[in-house]
């Protein structure tokens, strides 16, 4: 899955980098929700 990883909190938006992460697996009594699109703003 695609993720935004914070590598340096002090650097603000420059401290965020896109990365690929493995898909999570649901544990007992957990639910996985598929998100097809999202948006976030910094600030």
Short characterization:
The chain is an all-beta fold. Helices cover 0% and strands 23% of the residues.
Show the helix and strand layout.
Elements: E1 2-6, E2 16-20
Antiparallel strand pairs: 1-2
Region (Disordered): 1-24
Describe, in plain words, how this protein is organized in 3D:
- The structure is a single chain.
- The protein is mainly beta and 43 residues long.
- It has one domain.
- Helix content is 0%, strand content 23%.
- It has no helices and two strands.
- The chain has strands at residues 2-6, 16-20.
- It has a two-stranded antiparallel sheet.
- The mean pLDDT is 89.
- Residues 1-24 are annotated as: Disordered.
Please, how many helices? 0
- Multimerization status: single chain
Q: What class do helices, strands and sheet pairing give? A: mainly beta
Q: Strands across the major sheet, in which order?
A: 1-2
- Low-confidence runs: none
Radius of gyration: 13 Å
Helix coverage percent of residues?
under 10%
In total, how many beta strands? 2
- The coarse silhouette is elongated
Portion of residues in beta strands equals 15-25%
Arithmetic mean of pLDDT = 89
Q: Give the termini distance in whole angstroms.
A: 25 Å
Region (Disordered): 1-24
């Amino acid at each position: 899955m695609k993720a935004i990883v914070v590598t340096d909190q002090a650097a603000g938006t420059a401290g965020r980098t896109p990365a690929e992460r493995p898909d999570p697996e649901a544990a007992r009594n957990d639910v996985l929700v598929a998100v097809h699109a999202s948006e976030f703003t910094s600030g």
